[in-house]
Amino acid sequence: MNSILITGCNRGLGLGIVKALTRLPKPPQYLFATCRNKDQAKELQDLAAQNSNIHILEIDLRNYDAYENLIKQIEEITENNGLNVLFNNAGIAPKSTKITATKKDDLMNTLETNTVVPIMLTKVACLPLLKKAATVQSNFDFGVQRAAILNMSSILGSIEANADGGLYAYRTSKAALNAATKSLSIDLLADKILCVALHPGWVRTDLGGSRAPLEVDETMTKLVDTVLQLNATHNGGFYQYDGEKLPW
Protein backbone atom coordinates (compact mmCIF):
# COMPACT_ATOMS: atom_id res chain seq x y z
CA MET A 1 0.00 0.00 0.00
CA ASN A 2 1.15 3.52 -0.73
CA SER A 3 -0.61 5.34 2.11
CA ILE A 4 -2.53 4.50 5.29
CA LEU A 5 -4.27 6.47 8.03
CA ILE A 6 -4.51 4.75 11.43
CA THR A 7 -6.49 6.27 14.30
CA GLY A 8 -5.59 5.95 17.97
CA CYS A 9 -1.84 5.41 17.71
CA ASN A 10 -0.54 6.85 20.97
CA ARG A 11 -0.44 3.38 22.58
CA GLY A 12 -1.78 -0.18 22.45
CA LEU A 13 -2.98 -1.72 19.21
CA GLY A 14 -2.63 1.45 17.11
CA LEU A 15 1.00 1.89 18.10
CA GLY A 16 1.52 -1.83 17.53
CA ILE A 17 0.14 -1.57 13.98
CA VAL A 18 2.43 1.36 13.21
CA LYS A 19 5.43 -0.63 14.45
CA ALA A 20 4.43 -3.69 12.42
CA LEU A 21 4.09 -1.62 9.25
CA THR A 22 7.53 -0.06 9.71
CA ARG A 23 9.01 -3.58 9.91
CA LEU A 24 7.66 -4.58 6.49
CA PRO A 25 10.21 -5.11 3.69
CA LYS A 26 8.37 -2.33 1.85
CA PRO A 27 6.60 -0.07 4.38
CA PRO A 28 3.89 2.36 3.23
CA GLN A 29 5.29 5.51 1.66
CA TYR A 30 2.97 7.59 3.83
CA LEU A 31 1.92 6.39 7.27
CA PHE A 32 -0.46 8.79 9.01
CA ALA A 33 -0.93 8.12 12.73
CA THR A 34 -3.46 10.07 14.78
CA CYS A 35 -3.41 10.83 18.49
CA ARG A 36 -5.24 13.29 20.70
CA ASN A 37 -2.12 14.70 22.35
CA LYS A 38 1.20 14.51 20.56
CA ASP A 39 3.12 15.48 23.70
CA GLN A 40 1.80 12.40 25.50
CA ALA A 41 2.66 10.06 22.59
CA LYS A 42 6.38 9.81 23.34
CA GLU A 43 6.91 6.33 21.87
CA LEU A 44 5.09 7.31 18.69
CA GLN A 45 7.21 10.45 18.41
CA ASP A 46 10.39 8.40 18.82
CA LEU A 47 9.20 6.04 16.10
CA ALA A 48 8.46 8.96 13.78
CA ALA A 49 11.95 10.35 14.40
CA GLN A 50 13.39 7.06 13.15
CA ASN A 51 11.00 6.66 10.19
CA SER A 52 10.46 9.63 7.88
CA ASN A 53 7.32 8.07 6.36
CA ILE A 54 5.41 8.46 9.67
CA HIS A 55 3.32 11.60 9.97
CA ILE A 56 1.68 12.25 13.35
CA LEU A 57 -1.67 14.03 13.10
CA GLU A 58 -3.04 15.47 16.31
CA ILE A 59 -6.85 15.34 16.47
CA ASP A 60 -9.73 14.67 18.83
CA LEU A 61 -11.86 12.44 16.61
CA ARG A 62 -15.05 13.49 18.39
CA ASN A 63 -14.40 17.04 17.16
CA TYR A 64 -16.04 16.57 13.76
CA ASP A 65 -15.23 20.15 12.73
CA ALA A 66 -11.53 19.17 12.74
CA TYR A 67 -11.94 16.62 9.95
CA GLU A 68 -11.57 19.19 7.17
CA ASN A 69 -8.11 20.14 8.45
CA LEU A 70 -7.20 16.44 8.64
CA ILE A 71 -8.05 16.04 4.96
CA LYS A 72 -5.92 19.05 4.03
CA GLN A 73 -2.91 17.70 5.91
CA ILE A 74 -3.14 14.34 4.16
CA GLU A 75 -3.77 15.87 0.71
CA GLU A 76 -0.76 18.17 1.05
CA ILE A 77 1.47 15.13 1.56
CA THR A 78 -0.06 12.56 -0.82
CA GLU A 79 -0.89 15.23 -3.42
CA ASN A 80 -3.13 13.72 -6.13
CA ASN A 81 -2.84 10.10 -5.02
CA GLY A 82 -5.55 10.05 -2.37
CA LEU A 83 -5.45 7.62 0.55
CA ASN A 84 -5.22 3.87 0.09
CA VAL A 85 -6.25 2.67 3.54
CA LEU A 86 -8.29 4.03 6.44
CA PHE A 87 -7.80 1.92 9.58
CA ASN A 88 -10.41 2.90 12.17
CA ASN A 89 -8.65 1.60 15.25
CA ALA A 90 -9.38 4.13 18.01
CA GLY A 91 -11.86 2.92 20.60
CA ILE A 92 -12.84 2.76 24.26
CA ALA A 93 -14.10 0.00 26.56
CA PRO A 94 -15.96 0.90 29.78
CA LYS A 95 -15.43 -1.43 32.73
CA SER A 96 -19.11 -1.94 33.58
CA THR A 97 -20.24 -5.47 32.68
CA LYS A 98 -23.64 -6.40 34.14
CA ILE A 99 -26.96 -4.85 33.19
CA THR A 100 -27.31 -3.56 36.78
CA ALA A 101 -24.05 -1.62 36.43
CA THR A 102 -24.67 -0.24 32.93
CA LYS A 103 -24.87 3.54 32.70
CA LYS A 104 -26.43 5.71 30.01
CA ASP A 105 -23.31 7.87 29.67
CA ASP A 106 -21.15 4.78 29.13
CA LEU A 107 -23.49 3.57 26.40
CA MET A 108 -23.61 6.94 24.64
CA ASN A 109 -19.88 7.70 24.88
CA THR A 110 -18.87 4.22 23.73
CA LEU A 111 -21.30 4.22 20.83
CA GLU A 112 -20.02 7.60 19.66
CA THR A 113 -16.34 6.69 19.91
CA ASN A 114 -16.54 3.13 18.61
CA THR A 115 -19.27 3.48 15.98
CA VAL A 116 -20.25 7.05 15.12
CA VAL A 117 -16.66 8.32 14.77
CA PRO A 118 -15.54 5.60 12.32
CA ILE A 119 -18.65 6.14 10.19
CA MET A 120 -18.31 9.92 10.12
CA LEU A 121 -14.55 9.86 9.58
CA THR A 122 -15.13 7.55 6.63
CA LYS A 123 -17.88 9.73 5.19
CA VAL A 124 -16.61 13.25 5.81
CA ALA A 125 -12.85 12.98 5.80
CA CYS A 126 -11.69 9.88 4.03
CA LEU A 127 -14.22 8.76 1.44
CA PRO A 128 -13.13 11.38 -1.14
CA LEU A 129 -9.48 10.43 -0.58
CA LEU A 130 -10.22 6.70 -0.78
CA LYS A 131 -12.18 7.12 -4.01
CA LYS A 132 -9.32 9.14 -5.47
CA ALA A 133 -6.86 6.38 -4.54
CA ALA A 134 -9.16 3.75 -6.06
CA THR A 135 -9.13 5.70 -9.31
CA VAL A 136 -5.36 6.17 -9.28
CA GLN A 137 -4.77 2.48 -8.50
CA SER A 138 -7.51 1.22 -10.82
CA ASN A 139 -5.20 -1.50 -12.16
CA PHE A 140 -5.54 -3.26 -8.78
CA ASP A 141 -8.60 -5.24 -7.73
CA PHE A 142 -10.04 -5.24 -4.18
CA GLY A 143 -7.29 -4.88 -1.58
CA VAL A 144 -5.18 -2.46 0.41
CA GLN A 145 -3.08 -1.76 -2.70
CA ARG A 146 -6.14 -0.07 -4.23
CA ALA A 147 -8.38 1.30 -1.45
CA ALA A 148 -9.70 -0.17 1.80
CA ILE A 149 -11.56 0.64 5.01
CA LEU A 150 -10.49 -1.53 7.94
CA ASN A 151 -12.58 -1.30 11.09
CA MET A 152 -11.13 -2.63 14.34
CA SER A 153 -13.99 -4.58 15.80
CA SER A 154 -14.00 -7.37 18.41
CA ILE A 155 -15.33 -10.89 18.83
CA LEU A 156 -17.32 -9.31 21.68
CA GLY A 157 -19.34 -7.62 18.93
CA SER A 158 -20.40 -11.00 17.56
CA ILE A 159 -24.04 -11.75 18.41
CA GLU A 160 -23.68 -15.43 17.55
CA ALA A 161 -20.55 -15.90 19.68
CA ASN A 162 -21.97 -14.14 22.75
CA ALA A 163 -22.21 -16.84 25.42
CA ASP A 164 -21.47 -14.71 28.49
CA GLY A 165 -23.71 -11.64 28.25
CA GLY A 166 -22.81 -8.33 29.88
CA LEU A 167 -20.47 -5.68 28.46
CA TYR A 168 -23.45 -3.80 27.02
CA ALA A 169 -21.69 -0.63 25.92
CA TYR A 170 -18.74 -2.35 24.27
CA ARG A 171 -20.63 -5.26 22.71
CA THR A 172 -23.36 -3.10 21.19
CA SER A 173 -20.90 -0.53 19.82
CA LYS A 174 -18.84 -3.21 18.07
CA ALA A 175 -21.91 -5.04 16.77
CA ALA A 176 -23.05 -1.71 15.32
CA LEU A 177 -19.63 -1.16 13.77
CA ASN A 178 -19.86 -4.59 12.16
CA ALA A 179 -23.24 -3.64 10.67
CA ALA A 180 -21.75 -0.39 9.34
CA THR A 181 -18.82 -2.28 7.80
CA LYS A 182 -21.21 -4.57 5.93
CA SER A 183 -23.22 -1.61 4.64
CA LEU A 184 -20.05 0.17 3.49
CA SER A 185 -18.97 -2.93 1.59
CA ILE A 186 -22.24 -2.80 -0.36
CA ASP A 187 -22.35 0.98 -0.86
CA LEU A 188 -18.74 1.13 -2.09
CA LEU A 189 -18.81 -2.03 -4.19
CA ALA A 190 -18.86 -0.14 -7.48
CA ASP A 191 -15.71 1.76 -6.46
CA LYS A 192 -14.01 -1.51 -5.47
CA ILE A 193 -13.17 -0.15 -2.03
CA LEU A 194 -12.60 -3.10 0.29
CA CYS A 195 -14.42 -2.95 3.66
CA VAL A 196 -13.57 -5.43 6.41
CA ALA A 197 -14.14 -5.74 10.17
CA LEU A 198 -11.19 -7.14 12.14
CA HIS A 199 -10.85 -8.77 15.55
CA PRO A 200 -7.36 -8.20 17.01
CA GLY A 201 -7.59 -11.04 19.52
CA TRP A 202 -7.40 -10.65 23.28
CA VAL A 203 -4.22 -8.59 23.48
CA ARG A 204 -2.34 -7.40 26.56
CA THR A 205 -2.99 -3.65 26.42
CA ASP A 206 -4.51 -1.07 28.77
CA LEU A 207 -7.92 -2.03 27.35
CA GLY A 208 -7.24 -5.77 27.12
CA GLY A 209 -5.81 -6.04 30.61
CA SER A 210 -2.89 -7.98 32.07
CA ARG A 211 -4.68 -11.35 31.82
CA ALA A 212 -4.81 -11.24 28.03
CA PRO A 213 -2.83 -14.09 26.42
CA LEU A 214 -1.53 -12.26 23.34
CA GLU A 215 1.39 -9.83 22.99
CA VAL A 216 0.91 -6.64 20.97
CA ASP A 217 3.95 -6.85 18.66
CA GLU A 218 3.53 -10.48 17.61
CA THR A 219 -0.24 -10.24 17.16
CA MET A 220 -0.20 -6.96 15.23
CA THR A 221 2.48 -8.39 12.94
CA LYS A 222 0.10 -11.25 12.13
CA LEU A 223 -2.78 -8.81 11.67
CA VAL A 224 -0.77 -6.72 9.18
CA ASP A 225 0.17 -9.90 7.27
CA THR A 226 -3.54 -10.78 7.11
CA VAL A 227 -4.47 -7.29 5.94
CA LEU A 228 -1.95 -7.46 3.09
CA GLN A 229 -3.63 -10.63 1.80
CA LEU A 230 -7.21 -9.33 1.84
CA ASN A 231 -9.01 -9.50 -1.51
CA ALA A 232 -12.50 -9.46 -3.04
CA THR A 233 -13.49 -12.66 -1.24
CA HIS A 234 -13.05 -10.88 2.12
CA ASN A 235 -15.14 -7.81 1.26
CA GLY A 236 -17.86 -7.19 3.86
CA GLY A 237 -16.51 -9.91 6.15
CA PHE A 238 -15.47 -10.24 9.79
CA TYR A 239 -12.02 -11.74 10.39
CA GLN A 240 -9.63 -12.47 13.22
CA TYR A 241 -6.06 -11.14 13.25
CA ASP A 242 -4.79 -14.42 11.78
CA GLY A 243 -7.32 -14.51 8.94
CA GLU A 244 -9.89 -16.83 10.54
CA LYS A 245 -13.44 -15.90 9.52
CA LEU A 246 -15.67 -15.04 12.47
CA PRO A 247 -19.44 -15.37 13.01
CA TRP A 248 -21.62 -12.27 13.05
TrEMBL record:
Record-level GO cellular component terms: cytoplasm
The keyword Transcription is assigned to this record: no
Keyword NADP: yes
Gene Ontology molecular function terms on file: carbonyl reductase (NADPH) activity
Any single Pfam family the record assigns to this protein: adh_short
Keywords, in A-Z order: NADP, Oxidoreductase
Family membership noted in the UniProt record: Belongs to the short-chain dehydrogenases/reductases (SDR) family.
PANTHER family according to UniProt: NADB-LER2, SHORT-CHAIN DEHYDROGENASE/REDUCTASE
Protein name per its UniProtKB record: Short-chain dehydrogenase
Organism: Glossina palpalis gambiensis
Organism lineage string: Eukaryota, Metazoa, Ecdysozoa, Arthropoda, Hexapoda
